[in-house]
Design a protein that fits this description.
The chain is built from nine helices and no strands. It has helices spanning 2-10, 18-36, 40-51, 58-71, 76-88, 92-105, 109-123, 125-139, 141-149.
Length: 155
């Protein structure tokens, strides 16, 4: 039901001015966050709301995602959304740091693949292959066993 209310309020049914409408939408999101603060889509949608304003509120959009990461740090979706946001803003070094941080905080196929795709887009395929091999060696259970056992047959 909340998503229907938010969609409805985005249409500005009361014909408010742009700033009044923004403040009212933020009030609705605050109420939404009070109930669903541990749901990552809430923080992503709040960030999108701030980005869609005229002019866009870039700092507020970034802060919404960072606040979501602080509240639920073990969810990769918000971290990836922040990395994509930074990349879209042209902050490539910040995007790389966020992708790397997501992979280090939540080592999974999703975070590794997103980080790897980012590296391929920005730095080329040869560096991407090196990242893949290093990532496999670092996080692969078999590779860790080989390192501990002294075997040289690791991938």
């Amino acid at each position: 039901a909340w998503d229907h209310l938010i969609k409805y309020e985005r249409t500005n049914p009361d014909k408010m001015s742009a700033e009044q409408h923004r403040q009212y939408q933020l009030l609705v999101y605050d109420q939404f966050i009070a109930c669903f603060r541990l749901h990552p889509e809430v923080w992503i949608e709040l960030s999108k709301l701030e980005q869609q304003q005229t002019p866009p509120y870039i700092t507020e959009a970034r802060n919404a995602l960072k606040e979501g990461i602080e509240l639920i740090p073990d969810v990769a979706m918000i971290r990836i959304a922040l990395a994509e946001f930074e990349e879209n803003q042209g902050s490539h070094e910040a995007a790389r740091d966020v992708y790397r941080g997501a992979f280090e905080a939540i080592p999974s196929a999703l975070t590794f693949t997103c980080f790897q795709r980012y590296v391929r887009r920005r730095e080329g395929n040869s560096i991407n292959i090196g990242l893949f091999v290093n990532g496999l060696n670092q996080y692969c259970v078999f590779c860790a066993w080989c390192r501990c056992s002294g075997s040289s047959s690791a991938v």
